[in-house]
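Fig. S4 source data, part A: sequence.
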Amino acid sequence: MAGRQLNLHWVLHLLCVLLTVRTVSGASGPSTGTHTSPEFPASGVNQTPVVDCRDVYGLNASDRCDFIRTNPDCHSEGGYLDYLEGIFCHFPAHLLPLVITLYAFWLLYLFLILGVTASKFFCPNLSAISTMLKLSHNVAGVTFLAFGNGAPDIFSALVAFSDPHTASLAFGALFGAGVLVTTVVAGGIAILRPFTAASRPFLRDIVFYMVAVFLTFTALYLGRVTLPWALGYVGLYVFYVFTVVLCTWIYQWQRSRSLVYSMPGTPEMLSDSEDDRVSSTTNSYDYREECQPLLFYQESTAQILVRALNPLDYRRWRYKPAYWRVLKVFKLPMEILLLLTVPLVDPDQENRNWKRPLNCLHLVISPLVVVLTLQSGAYGVYEIGGLFPVWGVVVIVGTALAAVTFFATSNSEPPRLHWLFAFLGFLTSALWINAAATEVVNILRSLGVVFQLSNTVLGLTLLAWGNSIGDVFSDFTLARQGYPRMAFSACFGGIIFNILVGVGLGCLLQLSRGHVEVKLEPDGLLVWVLAGALGLSLVCSLVSVPLQCFQLNKVYGFCLLLFYVNFLVVALLTEFGVIHLTSM
């Protein structure tokens, strides 16, 4: 498990960015003109007056349902469920605590879906794509890997930017995750395993991240993002990738000239060797090798299908604690569904995980999932010529391809075009993540209406915590295993990608829909507190780490944790009006 997470921390993400543009822009759909708002008015359309949806509590209980249904500010462009209508129209007011509890459990399960889909399906397929394209580990690490690790954050940001009402949720989540990772995660790593940071990579990453935060701060101050500004985000990330590749080439050139041997202990020169050691040592035990059959036997097609759809390893189950087993039981339904709908090409497994009966089913089911998740199913139910639905055509074509593949291949050997399943698995898992992220954003916005909270505070708390929990566990695991330098570097590499690509692509998608600019309306004082806290934490690290000669100890870690606690207190006090600006 740790080995898989580690490979994810340096192996994946450029082609996916291009594919994501098509995926998410498709998710925005052809019917975007039906939603109007003050920020993005549709010309020539009679607009219903827009009132803040949080004003619903100023009405009588009998009028709240009509208000939710008729007010454009209460509508969401994507998603399968209308959570606000469920609260105010389908349940009586005295059952509100029960509804909120159910929503909370559903939100936790959605975060679980995001994590499982990204780690077990999205990232391995990206790893297979990067291997097929023969990308170097460094290029794949700052492209494919960063996208794989940041998939929940990126899709949440893209979904939030697709609706002007939830744009502040994206800023809250990106800034909140930035503060969380650069303080709690980085501080926790220093506490678990004091170490010497790699000086040049650290300075490079923190400077690029500070530039990205400054660009976002300026965009919020100006209140808009234009096309050149959005392209500047993406261009800055391309320049960051170029810088990483150039620095790697310089390092390898120096090593080839034997200059590295004169300084065997310098932190900068240890990062690559550490990477090599981790990749070869983290898989310390393979439970699959425990009970290998003494005699080889040929499995039937039915046995292969049943085994491929079983996500539970009974041999591994015996070694796991009780809490892991309980969590596994909760994950079983979603894992079976994902196994049935998402092809998985894994270079680390035998025959690259070729399972003939299951892969043939994927040729039918995966394209069906794609058309039923684009625009929340609007593309799938569209009838061609008013006669035959798109999903029916997809099933017919998929069935024909599955039949040809089944009779033209064997169970024991993958076909030559097996690598195409990696692209199909990438697209399907990306759309699963996008669908789950859409539901997460809609639930958080509904909770904001119920509890009278701004989207910014929901983004910097629930959304940021939920999307970052996987990075927290994986980085802490790396630190405990003796690789704190790699975990510390991953803290900055991922969030640079998240903010540059999340904001850049989110705004580009809005601009591609015919808007001259993307208007940004900061959600009160809180967004400035959030941006200021993130900038202050980066400046403190930029000054204090070199002053410590890049020796990060437990004192530095506890200081970062204390900074985050103080930031969270100030943010909540600002949200509830205790801290506010006095009008002159």
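Fig. S4 source data, part B ends here. The two ends are 58 Å apart (CA to CA).
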